[in-house]
């Protein structure tokens, strides 16, 4: 098979995040078409044909592109609100605004969320979108288009809520769909946008929102739907003590047992947060290979607690990192979550042995690929995998005095991204997006945030 056009990247450190954590202090990568063809120590082999570009990456660390496993893009236009509340009070404060989003707002918010992540080294992102107000237009199509134009891989977790306040749920009745509408729309979204192929740019998951905003029937039928269609399942789980209490009062069991009883543990499932997990919950996740999206900043912002990531990893639970929605993590960045995951877990019982810098990098790359079911395609730098990678600049004031590049990346200030590639296509150059204009996006997100605030106030 003829290789596609080749790009050579030389003179950089490389952290492959392969099974052996192979690193090269001074190495090269050969990208051919949308794949990684070769990598190793020293210079690239001589005499390669069809080389269209040669990059001198001196002073840089190459890593796999970061994988964001949990986010709510629409929240980009409701940041900085209800800043001192816990999850349930914060949700109740924000639902009235969220229930009034439309296509124009979601378009601006998705582009803002994507831009912020992508210029910080994200190459694959999840949008868990669970607010679909009646008459709000084609929100799924809007999100897919925004991701495609930014150049990033997307897993659209088509979310839903069908348990309104009058039925004992948390969201107001006007913010929820009916069970049948939610299932039909989710199936249609899979049919329209899910691509199962190796180099897919768009995949879709079935993603009812949380135990306190969806019915047991929606969870059960959602799981059946996902398995019939061969797509993954995503939701929020075990985020707060209040959720635990809610599950005990309503279902007579904790969240993990409840999820198991509704078909929601399995290797095709990943769940955001998983903060309040006891030993048997962690064992159940490990036994079933259920994945976790760890969101340390959001958990701190909402005072939810510290997820037991070291215990999950020791038990064999797949764990990735998530920004979470930017209404509870205003920075919207994932590269800073490597550092936050390490720091926050060291405040837990395992103290200085909780996570090291390489484990943090693994969570943000290979771990993320695992929970999205794409570990043989992305998440590490290995021949045959998709060419999703980042060149981090580590020779400036912020990092130049740190000898270990992985320690510099994880523990130091947020490193500038000189270049970022998705499937061999460059999407970031010197910290700026190549296929979208940040200033235009900034203006439209401000305008849409103001429009939403005005509409919410008037109603
Ligand atoms: Zn979330």
TrEMBL record:
Domain named Amidohydrolase-related: residues: 62-402
Entries under SUPFAM superfamilies matching the protein: Composite domain of metallo-dependent hydrolases, Metallo-dependent hydrolases
Enzyme class, spelled out: hydrolase
Signal peptide start-end: none
Entry EC no(s): 3.5.4.32
GO molecular function list: 8-oxoguanine deaminase activity
Keywords for the protein's UniProt record, in alphabetical order: Hydrolase
PANTHER family hit by this protein: AMIDOHYDROLASE-RELATED DOMAIN-CONTAINING PROTEIN, AMINOHYDROLASE SSNA-RELATED
UniProt cross-references to NCBIfam families, sorted A to Z: PRK08203.1
Protein name: 8-oxoguanine deaminase
């Amino acid at each position: 098979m003829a290789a596609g056009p080749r790009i050579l990247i030389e003179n950089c450190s490389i952290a492959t995040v392969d099974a052996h954590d192979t690193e090269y202090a001074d190495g090269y990568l050969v990208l051919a078409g949308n794949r990684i063809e070769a990598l190793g120590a020293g210079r690239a082999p001589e005499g390669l044909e069809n080389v269209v570009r040669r990059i001198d990456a001196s002073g840089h660390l190459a890593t796999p592109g970061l994988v964001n496993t949990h986010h709510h893009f629409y929240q980009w236009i409701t940041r900085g609100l209800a800043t001192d509340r816990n999850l349930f009070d914060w949700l109740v404060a924000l639902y009235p605004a969220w229930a009034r989003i439309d296509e124009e707002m979601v378009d601006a918010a998705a582009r803002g969320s994507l831009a912020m992540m992508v210029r910080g080294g994200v190459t694959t992102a999840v949008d868990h979108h669970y607010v679909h107000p009646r008459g709000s237009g084609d929100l799924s199509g809007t999100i897919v288009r925004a991701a495609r134009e930014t150049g990033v891989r997307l897993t659209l977790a088509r979310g839903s809520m069908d348990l309104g306040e009058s039925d004992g749920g948390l969201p107001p009745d006007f913010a929820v769909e009916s069970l049948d509408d939610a299932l039909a729309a989710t199936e249609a979204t899979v049919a329209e946008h899910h691509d199962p192929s190796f180099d897919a740019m768009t995949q879709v998951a079935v993603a009812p929102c949380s135990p306190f905003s969806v019915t047991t029937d929606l969870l059960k039928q959602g799981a059946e739907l996902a398995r019939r269609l061969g797509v993954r399942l995503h939701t929020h789980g075990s985020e707060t003590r209040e959720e635990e209490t809610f599950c005990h009062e309503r279902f007579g069991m904790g969240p993990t047992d409840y999820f198991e009883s509704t078909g929601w543990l399995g290797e095709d499932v990943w769940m955001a947060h998983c903060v309040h997990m006891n030993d048997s919950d962690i064992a159940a996740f490990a036994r079933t290979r259920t994945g976790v999206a760890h969101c340390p900043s959001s958990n701190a912002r909402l005072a939810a607690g510290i997820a037991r990531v070291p215990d999950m990893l020791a038990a064999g639970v797949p764990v990735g990192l998530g920004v979470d929605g930017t209404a509870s993590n205003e920075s919207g960045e994932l590269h800073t979550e490597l550092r936050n995951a390490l720091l926050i877990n060291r405040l837990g019982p395992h103290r200085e042995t909780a996570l090291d810098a390489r484990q943090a990098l693994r969570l943000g790359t290979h771990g993320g690929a695992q929970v999205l079911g794409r570990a043989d395609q992305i998440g590490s730098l290995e021949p045959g995998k998709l060419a999703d990678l980042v060149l981090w600049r580590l020779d400036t004031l912020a990092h130049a005095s740190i000898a270990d590049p992985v320690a510099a990346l994880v523990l130091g200030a947020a490193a500038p991204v000189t270049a970022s590639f998705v499937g061999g296509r460059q999407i970031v150059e010197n910290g700026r997006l190549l296929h979208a204009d940040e200033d235009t996006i900034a203006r439209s997100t401000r305008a849409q945030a103001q429009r939403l605030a005005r509409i919410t106030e008037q109603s």
